[in-house]
Amino acid sequence: MNENIRKRNELLAQKVIGGLKSRNMTGYYAESKEEALKKALELIPEGSSIAMGGAMSAHEIGLVDMLQTDSYRFIDRDQAADKREAMLKAYDADVFLSSVNAMTEDGVLVNIDGNANRVSAIAQGPKKVLFIVGMNKICNDIDAAMKRARNVAAPINAQRFGLNTPCTKTGACMNCKSPDTICCQFLITRYSRHADRIHVILVNDSLGF
Ligand code: SF4
Question: What pLDDT digit, counting tens, does each position of 121-160 carry?
């Protein structure tokens, strides 16, 4: 990576980490995907029960593969015969893994959801929530973060799931009320009531979308 980009990301990450601290959340900076994986495994004790929402970034650093071993109790909603039961179990998990659709420089997290299993578990339930966040998700302020979530992340996710929404045809959010919309719930996490619950690993890389 270009040294100037690396330096910018490191400086910006320190600002984000300061913002998280002021909001009773904890941030870390990882120079690479490998460093992010190492940090994530330090934060997840062996034997933990683990659930996840949409977390492409966790896949991209190799974390999900590591957690689907006998050393952890991974709740795999996709493989579960009873998906509702798996979703309910997720609320009692030791660790919930997620990414963000966007995040502000001062530490506010923005997530959009269709079924709301992800945003509801972020809001409450699991004992610890661990976010893996590429520096491409950091936005200047809450307006920019909402725009990113709605105009970049949501249309790409709708495309990924093959949904019949206007954004899969135009590439931009049309503020739809389509039955297929994935924009049913918006969660803005601006403070954590519980110390040591929300942890964010910022990765010096472009992860997810
Ligand atoms: S509101 Fe509709 S058009 Fe906009 S991003 Fe969501 S699904 Fe796509």
Answer: 999 999 999 999 999 999 999 999 999 999 999 999 999 9
Structural domain boundaries, residue 148 = 3-203
Q: Is 209 contained in some domain? A: no
Find how far residue 144's CA is from the centre of its chain: 17
Of ligand 1's atoms, which has the minimum distance to the CA of residue 166?
3
Question: Is 182's C-beta closer than 6 angstroms to any atom of ligand 1?
Answer: yes
* pTM of the predicted structure, to 2 decimals: 0.95
Q: What CATH number has the domain bearing residue 116? A: 3.40.50.10420
Q: How do strand 128-134 and strand 95-98 relate by DSSP bridges?
A: parallel
Report how many domains make up the chain: 1
* Inside any domain, residue 151: yes
User: Which of 146, 181, 184 is the best mutation target for the ligand 1 pocket, counting ligand atoms within 8 Å of the beta carbon and taking the most?
Assistant: 181
